[in-house]
Amino acid sequence: MKNKGITLVALVVTIVIMLILAGVTLRLALGENGLFNISKQSVEKYEESVQNEEEELDELLEELKHIMPEEAGKEVEVPKAEKDKWDLTKVTPTADGKGNTIPVPKNFYYVGGDKDSGFVISSVSGDDLNNSKKGNEFVWVPVKVINDMVMCKEHTTATITFDGVNFSCDGNGHPHTPNKEYLVGQLYTPTTDNGFTAGIPYTEYNENIIREPGLTTVDTDENLSNFLQTTSNEFLQELQEEFYKMAKSVAKYGGFYIGRYETSGLNDGEEPKVQSGLVPTGNINWYTIYKNSKKIAQEGSNVTSSMIWGSQWDYVLNWMQDIENPTLTEEKKYYIMDSRGMGWYYGETGNNEHKTGIDLIKDGKVTNKEKNIYDFAGNFEELNMACSGGTVRALRGGSYKLEGNVRPACNLRLVRPDAIYEWVSSRVTLCINLNPGE
Ligand SMILES: [Zn+2]
């Protein structure tokens, strides 16, 4: 702290002296080198040193939190950086036991894990990592930089930032606020041939390749009135609105929750569930999954549920990109690239009903719950919100019908939204709600 500004004692002495002098004569204070300018400089220097001290104290406190973290699941204070962002009527700032604070939506409960291993919450109090209370369980996906998940349609290389209220895009010399027509998903090149090129997004938004939010050519007025009681135009606007709100929530709270299990109970008239030991809903088309995934979030709750967006799936892949697959001997042995042995695939016995959340154990270790998320590879293939230029929407992850090198976690296939396959299901995500007008 040496030589940084002036000390508190020196400042007090200065002020006292100045007050005495001011009482004697005010004329002195008005000159160029008068007391007024001198005291102004002192105050500036003092403020500077206070700020430096505060920053150093904050850093020290952050380090202290990591050395002596609060007990996992305990309600803690909002981190300083999030103070103006998090709405404490919607979330409870909760310690992960490793010095991190996670926003847990009200009416959800901490179950186990931490930010890096996967912080798990449940809709039922007293639930655990075995889901024995049968709540719907979700895992926090921390998103540090929102620009890794979204981009501006017209300036895809520009930086998107969030100031707590609005996005801004510093696109090509004409900065602007991307509204809901301009904000799109950052989607990555996910083929096993060229490697999962994480960090290299599509550089241009193109109506002919995979993108979101958007319509397929199958999303006709006829299909939409049939499956979702809406029209093409209204549906596009709905998707844009939902994507924009999701992105804002992720930026505001620094992440989103992903379903810990593939979704079951998605048929009309059923209760959708994100629980272990159930068979995910197959033989169902994209439209019905889209509609009923929203029912996971109870009416009037602090969260919105949705079929997972393509950019959310890709963000999770990025989060998992360094996880190695110990069952492989090949040089390229990353889990997301080749998921053999790390999911319920063809040839794995013991889960012939294809239930989700069933432990696959290799060498005494559960291999199908990376980041505490079950069956991200393997079991059912999972539809998401991304679409292509033609008739199709994105289908990701593994399939019990095939092997883990053919259908790894990064697998991307495309299917028509009106088609049904017995091994195709989906997964939901939760976002913390914004306030009206946000
Ligand atoms: Zn832009």
Short description:
This protein has helices spanning 8-24, 35-67, 221-228, 232-253, 286-293, 310-319; strands at 91-95, 101-105, 109-112, 120-122, 137-142, 150-152, 160-162, 167-169, 183-185, 255-259, 303-307, 361-362, 365-366, 381-387, 393-396, 412-415, 424-426, 428-432. It is α+β, with helices and mostly antiparallel strands.
Task: Describe it.
The protein is an alpha+beta fold and 438 residues long. The protein folds into two domains: 8-67; 146-432, no CATH class. It has helices spanning 8-24, 35-67, 221-228, 232-253, 286-293, 310-319; strands at residues 91-95, 101-105, 109-112, 120-122, 137-142, 150-152, 160-162, 167-169, 183-185, 255-259, 303-307, 361-362, 365-366, 381-387, 393-396, 412-415, 424-426, 428-432. The strands form six sheets. A six-stranded antiparallel beta sheet has the order 3-4-5-10-18-11. β12 (361-362) and β13 form a beta hairpin. 43% of the residues are buried. Mean pLDDT is 88; it is low at 194-199.
